[in-house]
Amino acid sequence: MRAPIPVFVATGRGWLGPCRKLAASADIAVVANIRQAAILIVAGEPRDEDRDALRRLHDQMPHPRATAWWGTRPFAEADSALEVSATDDPGPLLRRAFAALLARVRESEPDWLPDDPPNPWRGEGDHGQGGKGMMGGTPYGRPMAMTADDLRDGLALDSFSFTVGPFYPSLPPGLALELVLQGDIIQSARIVRPPLDPGKGAADACRSMIVGRMLHLLELDALARRCEAVPVDDRDAVAALRRRIGASGAMRAIPDGLGRIAGADARTRFTRMVAALGDAEASSFAGPGGRLVDLLPGLEWSEAMLVINSFSHRDLVALAPREVEPEEHREGHGT
């Protein structure tokens, strides 16, 4: 029996449905960390503003490595790119490329970015250390912690700001957030980029992937993989999956009252989402109104991920419009 190919998927606009089918293949193991991948799959055309994040993502992948461009043209700097048309199954090409990498027949891809700090920092600041006073700055592109008042008790503690997304697997594809944390408590949040359009007719695939992400967050990985692979048009299989999720206690693992908006909390929204699995007509629920970023301050990281993924795609788009970028904002390393 052959080992599955470890791949990391960067999903583009309208490609959520094909990516779900690919993830269900026994030949493929979609990993949650680019450092576990041998092949990066770029599925669909990336947004212009996501291209630099995609380059940073690629350069974090360990050697030997390759990139498959599925239904989109490779970047100019992507030498020896693997190209797959939008209508073809990338599986056979991935299998051959993975075997060639392991046998060292195929050369590993070089970095796409120059070996330079992504942000200027050397020589800046009072002592040339790159920050403000004795602290701060963005050495090597990673913002250092600065003191700020904690929103719970006003004590001045180290706060850390960073950008996560648009390819972070625990978030909907395309969504990028700038967060300020003290410890594991979110102090503030800003939408950097909204989630991507999942594509026409992808409501069922989108819903099953959201439920799958919630189950991963609740550490029910086997059930999550079953959810991500279940044929959404197989009523018996979907009904059996719903019973398994209910019996797992997943709903009760979500804190009562978490992320409440418009009379529904994260547990209620997740319960509705599970009930709608396999129902193509239940494309979304009523839009809740409000802003996602107002729900996140004061939450721990794990709670925030549950709140974000408890919304349907349609509701999340309404809750997370793109925000104006502050003048002093410098983007760190997104994933």
Walk me through what this model shows.
The chain is an alpha/beta fold. Helix content is 28%, strand content 16%. The protein contains 9 helices and 9 strands. The protein has helices at 16-23, 51-59, 91-102, 203-217, 221-229, 235-248, 266-275, 301-309, 313-319, and strands at residues 5-11, 28-30, 39-43, 66-70, 82-84, 146-149, 156-164, 176-182, 185-193. The strands form 2 sheets. The chain has a 5-stranded parallel β-sheet with strand order 2-1-3-4-5. α4 (203-217) runs antiparallel to α5 (221-229) and α4 (203-217) runs antiparallel to α8. The two termini are 32 Å apart. The model has no long low-confidence stretch (mean pLDDT 85). Residues 109-136 are annotated as: Disordered.
List its traits.
4-stranded antiparallel beta sheet; alpha/beta; 335 residues; 9 helices; 9 strands; 5-stranded parallel beta sheet; globular
Which helices and strands appear, and what pairs or packs with what?
Blueprint: E1 5-11, H1 16-23, E2 28-30, E3 39-43, H2 51-59, E4 66-70, E5 82-84, H3 91-102, E6 146-149, E7 156-164, E8 176-182, E9 185-193, H4 203-217, H5 221-229, H6 235-248, H7 266-275, H8 301-309, H9 313-319
Helix pairs in contact: 4-5, 4-8
In short:
Residues 109-136 are annotated as: Disordered. This protein is α/β, with parallel strands linked by helices and 335 residues long.
Q: Poorly predicted ranges (pLDDT <50, ≥5 residues)?
A: none
Radius of gyration: 21 Å
Describe the strand arrangement of the main beta sheet, using strand numbers: 2-1-3-4-5
Strand content: 15-25%
The total of beta strands comes to 9
How can the largest sheet be summarized? Answer: 5 strands, parallel
Principal-axis shape equals: globular
State the distance separating the first and last CA atoms.
32 Å
Q: Report the oligomer.
A: single chain
Q: How many helical elements?
A: 9
